[in-house]
């Protein structure tokens, strides 16, 4: 397993990582469209519930079946909490007080938490100088990309920022925990379906009691569209890619996607909204790219080869 959980990524893994960054980058945008119309628990319930239904239907349509091993379902339950229930609720609640762009910056600390957690909890993803350098470059790129003024002007919502950071930490633990599913011979589709199903089971009674969604005003057509995008694209499809990358490239490499999410958001804004890229945004993208290469190991490897 060591050879497949912590290796340099190939072109396929990089392509899947880019696609995942676009899907998850869109999730912050979708939440921005919904957060004023629905309470956080209901948003998260719709996200995981609709995604779980969609993936279960895909399994049926393709002739696959979910395993009925109780050990697997205990793992699905834990993964559903670490990778869905906890971070989704914390981040959506955070976005009720802070902008999605800032939330994506805070979410980009996930690899920082991950390399530390992986160092202590795994045998094959230890801290190295290259990984430390890559994390530093990547996080610096995110800061430059979003602007220093954004960081300095966010002191009024400390609890919301801490909530998003706690969500990032939960993602880090999920990335490490999720490695076991490859060893248990569970497909990425089954893993994604299992975790989302268990997250829905846990959240359903809580959301019904707390939010009482039946008394809420009917959301707008835009909100309905955003809910569909959040559930089907940024969750159902995204987690199929997530577990595919996790199984072949490792937890630390996978969670580099959090660096690319702000890049995806700016690129989509430039294409669809006519937003112009500033020099700071281009510089930020460059730093993020260098950080990805450093953590992947190719940049340092080539430098050593050139100087040897």
Description:
This protein is mostly helical. It has one domain. The protein has 16 helices and no strands. Helix 2 runs antiparallel to helix 5, helix 3 packs antiparallel against helix 11 and helix 4 packs across helix 11. It is globular, with a radius of gyration of 19 Å. The two termini are 31 Å apart. The N terminus is likely disordered.
Mean of all residue-level pLDDT scores: 82
Task: Return the domain count.
Answer: 1
Helix content: over 70%
Strand content: under 5%
Shape: globular
Which regions are unreliable across 5 or more consecutive residues at pLDDT < 50?
A: 1-5
> What is the terminal-to-terminal distance?
31 Å
Using DSSP, what is the number of strands? 0
Structural class: mainly alpha
The biggest sheet, with number of strands, parallel, antiparallel or mixed sense and barrel status, is:
none
* SSE topology string: HHHHHHHHHHHHHHHH
Radius of gyration: 19 Å
The helix tally amounts to 16
Characteristic terms for this protein:
mainly alpha, 16 helices, disordered N terminus, 308 residues
Write the layout of secondary structure elements.
Elements: H1 2-5, H2 11-34, H3 40-61, H4 70-94, H5 100-107, H6 110-121, H7 129-146, H8 148-152, H9 158-177, H10 180-183, H11 188-211, H12 221-249, H13 251-254, H14 257-272, H15 279-296, H16 298-307
């Amino acid at each position: 397993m060591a050879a497949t959980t912590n290796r340099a990524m190939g072109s396929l893994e990089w392509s899947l990582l880019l696609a995942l960054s676009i899907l998850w980058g869109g999730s912050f945008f979708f939440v921005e469209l919904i957060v004023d119309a629905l309470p956080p628990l209901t948003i998260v319930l719709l996200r995981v519930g609709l995604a779980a239904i969609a993936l279960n239907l895909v399994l049926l349509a393709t002739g696959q079946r979910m395993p009925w091993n109780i050990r697997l379902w205990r793992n699905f339950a834990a993964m559903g909490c670490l990778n869905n229930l906890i971070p989704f609720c914390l981040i959506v609640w955070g976005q009720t007080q802070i902008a999605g762009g800032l939330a994506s910056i805070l979410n980009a600390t996930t690899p920082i938490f991950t390399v530390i957690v992986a160092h202590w909890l795994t045998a094959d993803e230890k801290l190295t100088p290259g990984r430390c350098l890559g994390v530093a470059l990547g996080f610096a790129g995110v800061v430059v990309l979003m602007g220093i003024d954004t960081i300095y002007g966010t002191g009024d919502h400390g609890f919301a920022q801490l909530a998003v950071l706690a969500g990032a930490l939960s993602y880090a633990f999920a990335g490490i925990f999720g490695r076991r599913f490859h060893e248990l011979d569970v497909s990425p589709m089954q893993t994604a379906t299992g975790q989302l199903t268990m997250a829905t089971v846990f959240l359903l009674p809580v959301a019904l009691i707390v939010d009482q969604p039946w008394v809420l005003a009917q959301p707008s057509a835009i909100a309905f569209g955003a809910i569909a995008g959040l559930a089907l694209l940024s969750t159902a499809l995204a987690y199929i890619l997530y577990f595919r990358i996790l199984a072949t490239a490792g937890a630390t490499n996978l969670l580099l996607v959090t660096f690319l999410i702000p890049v995806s958001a700016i690129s989509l804004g430039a294409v669809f909204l006519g937003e112009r890229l500033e020099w700071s945004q281009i510089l930020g993208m460059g730093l993020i790219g260098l950080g990805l290469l450093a953590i992947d190991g190719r940049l340092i490897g080539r430098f050593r080869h050139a100087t040897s």
